[in-house]
Specification:
heterodimer; A: alpha/beta; Rossmann fold; formyl-coa transferase, domain 3; three-stranded antiparallel beta sheet; elongated; B: alpha/beta; 2 domains; six-stranded parallel beta sheet; 19 helices
Chain lengths: 414, 436
């Protein structure tokens, strides 16, 4: 399938086609990392065919659900990472099911998978073989510990991966002490790291294919993607025996601190002198911040009392009051927002960061976009996650495969 | 393990010395970024083979050469900061004082032959200097420019500034991170690197688009949205469940045990030879998703009697009684070493891992089997082992070929070799103060 658009675009101000117009992605992946990567490609305009077992992606059975009782179409985990895709049911325990998958992969530009080497071999999808069979194919694997190496088949979960990667230790170090238990961050963010790394690598491989004409194998270990997010402090720990854990955060110390406002928490970070000056200006320039000559005293020279005064000042105000006051004076700060507050923020609304997608079973909901606006390309219409197997018949149609839906059904594939 | 060191004539000999072409080999990118998020975003493009020309100035030193949120002030010189090295590998550094007209002309000349530009200034700063996208595109209509700011280039908060901890606060992630009964966690540098990953992906999508359509473009990236994008499911909880999520710490909504447990040590005592730099204390993460995994854990740990305990017989019961379960498991782990115990549990089919950091990551067998660390020697400091890129590409590999540059290390190289300026012109620029 060609990725070059047939339409010429001459006008300077006219938007071009969507980013990945005409690209075919086939996905054999579950839970978060693999599906998130394929979702990013699908949201950017690729046709993404998700191959699911007859009972569906395991995320479809993960709580919580949009409805009071579990329903295979309404798991929020499923809905979040599968927008803009098509769902095809294939029973890969049958030879004919595996054959249809082969045919799909043969036509794909990108094959996204989270299956480990043993399972890929069982499915006759060994990456090296695929690489030989389909020279233009990009085989994009995100597995917990990578395709190569003795840990490839280790059992793991999001928790053990976050700890095996160093990510959880990294979160703990932010708390000002390194003796407590290492702590996974919230909201499955570590798992998303694997998906982001894979999607980035796929885009790199797509560029390489445009330039050099061939596909390749992309091997991302999600634990390595996570550890790279802490590469700075991991390096300092390994090579320099440090760093010391974060300095005390009382009163929003120069290097960042959490303040308690009247309605919740706020983070203020003022390492540069003009930022510190901004914080002091926001507070109405209290005397203790200046020396006898009227010069602002460096934050690091001030003791506990400064921290107490800042905490007291913030504690008497709302997060929003403190946030606006600091930012208006060039002091970096951010209220600790609940997700619902993020969605209601004027900034996010003006930027259309969320778009509302309808779903035939779950209610319509707001989904976050990609965090960048490509000002020269059309933004494709996104769609909510597909119903289980809703594109099985389409994909079995003659132009994609020699299997008619009736034949496939008889063969027990779908 | 591969080693890269600086030659005596500066490091530009190393740059371009990758064994094989990367996906971006031959592409040139003007790198206006500083601090962590922007430089890491740009560095990923350099690891993929692009020439990153980092614009620096002694009048406005990248503060990651001087301090970090985790370390505080750095006591060494501007060419010795370890945090700077980690997010500026494979780059060229040119010193330019962008307030000077001569320096602006250098940028315009670079733009003529550049494929991309990336910055993380507050929106409007580059425009004020006459070096924004609309200016650069006059010289090169096909240029792809990514501008990554705290909250994006549009909207009422476009002029607000931030660092990693504020991006996490404004995205909802901080609120959801921490122990259930504790306040939300202030996140650190990893948030910058996530924002940088998002910006790098935006640039790659722009380059791929250019390869297909010949079109350049401006890309407006928001670091706070970048973190929001990583936690998509949480926003669905709001609209579909009518509530915000909660902090779970190491816990899970349905599984137990699902936690970390203190161990006697990281490794068995005999592992601690004189040159062992890893941690002495250890923690192990254990997750049981099924009765089978729970039964295996009981057998491995000698806690066989718990298998029959009615409090823990089903998943739901274990979850309800998880607070009672924890000390029982910890009584066992606190006599064990983390690495070997995790190994034994995994062999029995139980998801488990030692919770590692720093040197213990470098000591891991799987890390070594996958190629291990890369050694780089920044010129004014010691040999360092750094993590390899997070992707293995079979045909166009990403490679670390050079340590981060010294401040202005490549000024002459960029002006004479990349731009073809003669010595007289370079001397004039220097005399005018454009190269400070």
């Amino acid at each position: 399938m060609s990725t070059r658009s047939a339409e010429p675009f001459d006008a300077d101000d006219e938007l071009g086609p969507p980013l990945l117009d005409g690209l075919l992605v086939v996905e054999l992946a579950e839970e978060i990392a693999g599906p998130f990567a394929a979702r990013l490609l699908a949201d950017a305009g690729a046709v993404a065919i998700k191959v699911e077992p007859p009972q569906g992606d395991v995320s479809r059975r993960m709580a919580p659900f949009a409805e009071p009782s579990p329903h295979r179409e309404t798991s929020t985990s499923w809905l979040a990472y599968n927008t803009s895709k098509r769902s095809v049911i294939l029973d890969l325990d049958t030879a004919s099911g595996r054959r249809v998958l082969q045919q799909l992969v043969a036509q794909a530009d990108v094959f996204v998978t989270d299956r480990t080497p043993v399972r890929l071999a069982e499915l006759d999808l060994n990456p090296d073989d695929l690489r030989e069979r389909y020279p233009r194919l990009i085989i994009a694997a995100v597995t917990p510990f990578g395709l190569i190496g003795g840990a490839a088949e280790w059992p793991s979960t999001a928790l053990t991966r976050a700890h095996a990667s160093g990510s959880a230790a990294g979160v703990r170090r932010n708390l000002g002490a390194d003796t407590g238990a290492p702590l996974m961050a919230g909201a499955k963010v570590h798992e998303a790291d694997g998906g982001m790394a894979l999607a980035l690598a796929v885009w790199s491989a797509l560029i390489a294919r445009e330039r050099f004409g061939h596909g390749q194998i992309v091997d991302v270990a999600s634990t390595e993607a996570m550890m790279n997010m802490d590469r700075v402090d991991i390096s300092i720990a390994h090579n320099d025996g440090g760093p010391p854990a974060r300095p005390p955060t009382k009163g929003g110390s120069a290097f960042g601190g959490r303040l308690e406002c009247s309605d919740g928490h706020l983070i203020a970070v003022t390492p540069q002198s003009h930022q510190w000056a901004g914080l002091i200006k926001s507070m109405g320039e209290p005397e203790w911040a200046f020396d006898a000559e009227g010069n602002l005293i460096d934050r690091l020279q001030l003791g506990e009392e400064a921290g107490d005064a800042i905490e007291q000042w913030a504690g008497a105000r709302t997060r929003d009051e403190v946030f606006r006051a600091l930012q208006e004076n060039s002091a970096p700060a951010g209220p600790v927002l609940r997700p619902s507050e993020v969605m209601d923020s004027e900034q996010m609304r003006v930027r259309d960061f969320f778009d509302r997608l309808d779903h035939p079973v779950a209610n319509s909901a707001r989904y976050p976009q990609f965090a960048a606006r490509w000002n020269g390309a059309q933004r494709p219409m996104r769609a909510a996650a597909p119903l289980l197997g809703s594109s099985t018949a389409d994909v079995m149609s003659p132009h994609l495969s020699p299997w008619s839906p009736a034949q496939a059904r008889r063969a027990g594939v779908i | 393990m591969t080693t890269t060191t600086n030659g005596s004539n500066g490091h530009h000999g190393l740059l371009g010395a990758a064994d094989r072409l990367g996906p971006l080999s031959g592409k040139r990118i003007i790198d206006f970024t500083w601090a962590w998020a922007g430089p890491y975003g740009a560095m990923q493009l350099a690891l993929l083979g692009a020439e990153l020309v980092k614009i620096e100035s002694a009048t406005r030193i990248d503060h990651s050469r001087q301090r970090s949120l985790a370390m505080g002030s750095f006591k060494g010189g501007v060419n010795q900061a370890p945090m700077f090295n980690e997010v500026n590998l494979n780059k060229y550094s040119i010193q330019l004082n962008l307030k000077m007209e001569g320096a602006k002309q250098v940028i315009r000349d670079l733009a003529r032959n550049a494929d991309g530009a990336i910055d993380n200034f507050r929106p409007g700063i580059l425009e004020k200097l006459g070096l924004g996208y609309d200016d650069l595109r006059e010289f090169n209509p096909e240029i792809v420019m990514v501008s990554a700011s705290a909250l994006g280039a549009t909207g009422p908060e476009r002029n607000y500034t931030g660092y990693a901890p504020t991006f996490a606060a404004l995205s909802g992630l901080s609120y959801l991170s921490g122990e259930p009964q504790e306040p939300p966690v202030m996140m650190g540098g990893s948030i910058d690197l996530r924002a940088g990953t998002t910006a790098a992906m935006a640039m790659l999508a722009g380059f791929h688009y250019h390869a297909r359509t010949g079109r350049g473009q401006f890309i407006d990236a928001s670091s706070s949205e970048a973190i929001g994008m990583h936690i998509a499911e949480e926003f669905l909880h709001v609209d579909l469940l009518g509530r915000d999520g909660e902090r779970l710490g190491n816990g899970h909504r349905a599984y137990a045990p699902h936690d970390v447990f203190r161990c006697a040590s990281m490794r068995r005592p005999e592992a601690y030879t004189d040159d062992h730099k890893g941690a002495r204390s250890g923690w192990i993460a254990i997750a049981c998703r099924s009765d089978e995994e729970w039964a295996s854990l009981c057998e491995c740990s000698g806690l066989d009697h718990l298998k029959e305990d009615p409090r823990f017989r089903t998943g739901l019961k274990r979850w309800k009684h998880r607070a009672e379960l924890k000390p029982m498991i910890e009584a066992w782990t606190s006599e064990q070493s983390a690495v070997e115990t995790a190994e034994a549990l995994r062999a029995a089919g139980v998801p488990a891992a030692a919770s590692v950091w720093g040197s213990d990551i470098h000591h891991s067998e799987n890390f070594r089997e996958r190629g291990g660390a890369v050694s780089v020697r920044p010129p004014e400091t010691h040999l360092r082992q750094v993590l390899p890129p997070p992707w293995k590409l079979s045909e166009t590999p990403a490679e670390i070929v050079s340590p981060a540059p010294r401040l202005g290390e490549d000024t002459d190289y960029v002006l004479s070799r990349m731009l073809g300026y003669d010595q007289e012109r370079i001397d004039t620029l220097a005399r005018e103060g454009a190269l400070e």
